[in-house]
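Retro notes - structure team

What went well: the batch runner handled both jobs without manual restarts.
What didn't: labels got mixed up in the shared folder, which is why I'm recording both outputs here explicitly, each with its sequence directly above its tokens.

Job 1
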Amino acid sequence: MSRRGNCHDNAVAESFFQLLKRERVKRKVYLTRDDAKSEVFDYIETFYNNKRKHGFNDLLSPVEYEKRYNERLESV
């Protein structure tokens, strides 16, 4: 949650939840809460972190960006 009077604190979280809703949740009807939990987990762990390209990360997935970042640190 953001600090009082600072709407920019939540920008990253709001952006993520907007993507989650647009790309996964609004396209399906879940029969149970467990189905929804499983689908959200799958979206984050299988697609969002590993495959989805992010503009802020030079169009790399978060996993690939972190891997390259760590390789640069190790080479110094």
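Job 2
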Amino acid sequence: MTPVAAPALARLRARFTAPPSTRVLVHRGTCGDAVESTRVLDSLRAALGPRAALAVETACDGACWATPAATVVRPGHRHRFARLDREPLEPLLTCIDGACEDDYAGSGERGLLARVGHLDGSLADALAQGAYLAAAHALQQKPADVIEAVQKASLTGRGGAHFATAQKWRLAAQNPAPRILVVNAEEGEPGVFKDRHLLEGDPHRLIEGILIAAHAVGVARAVIYINGQARYARRAVEAAVAQTRDAGLLDGSALGGAGVEIEVRSGAGGYVCGEESVILNSVEGERPVPRLRPPFATDRGLFDRPTVINNVETLCAVTTVYDGPPPPTKLLSLSGALPRPGLYEVPVDGATAWSGVLAAAGANPQRVRALLLGGPSGRFVLAEEFEEPLEMRGLGAGGVVVLPLDADIARVTRGLAAYNARESCGECTPCREGAPRLVALLEDATANREQIDALIEVMTEASLCQLGGMAGRPVASALALFPEAFEREASR
């Protein structure tokens, strides 16, 4: 942190009372409440009696498999207690007084998940755990220097396209003001839940990323576009925006900078609403369909103003660019046939492979037939590739479904094609007509292989957006890697 920034952040922290050093974090949010974590919270508070205030509500920490869960926090110590719907509370109660060891692997200080599931929802708690440290530093720098720092960190968009973030910021910054920042928090892709976890568990990290981006690009207005079904996420973000506004973080009076006004919007719903030009139409009150490009958003975006559109994870990752030289990481939403589904932060360091990711989630790679990477727009990954190092661009948005040895690949593929057909907005002919036609051809994929290949080529090249453009990707991947699955089906 710069010498000028340090006193400003210290003054801000001094305005708040730090949370107690010992407490029990009960993990709720979408994850926890799906398994009635409120019952655990009520039981815990009743068992604590006069110390009931030690039990604090927080979000899921990414360990979806553990819910309902609670984490005991003491100075220098964390210990998660999992599946409290079937495990007794006594070990947890004794742990509060020190009768347990620190065996929680997620207790590190760095990374996007460092605070997720460990905050009580207050700005005071976020500040105590390191929030706005990066913003305090960035806001004392020249905008061009901030963009340079983002470039040196090799930060790319984490929404799937992996476009260079610094380049996008520069393109917008060279256009006349006013400029706008749009945060893509739609996340309508099945099997992806990273952004919801970030928003529910650490919304202040997103706001900090917004402050940094706004300063770098010269943005005075930001719009956070949240999936209409993500009610917990919107509630957490709105509370955090109100807190930061009251604290002077948004108008620049607390840490400096010109300030930015943040507006929260709910998405219109549907897979296509994750496409960035659809978001622009939706915010403007227009029909949620893709726009023709060019012009690109950085030239003429929201209300015809130069606009930067960044994914939630991207802006959260911006807060780490001053942390030193750690390897870049990617958030992966792991689900399917594995013992510990949830959200994982994985280093993309040239050494980490799928086998290590699966092992962390408790899966035996030898019991996995394939991975579905990227959902309805994705591809299949064979077991033969599990030892190859992960590549950032190949991870897409980070949705990973683990398929067991007995998985019906043909059925899975037809399901993906049918989903894309249902979710088509109907704006362009290749997707509107091609997606249902692809579903029909898959009824006998072996006999219709040439027609399928030709149709996928047309949809890929001529669709207006990537819903249609990539709808054929999982089909082509399945037919190339698992032809026998479709041949067996045709012979029945």
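One thing worth noting from job 2: The mean pLDDT is 92.
We'll revisit the folder naming next retro.
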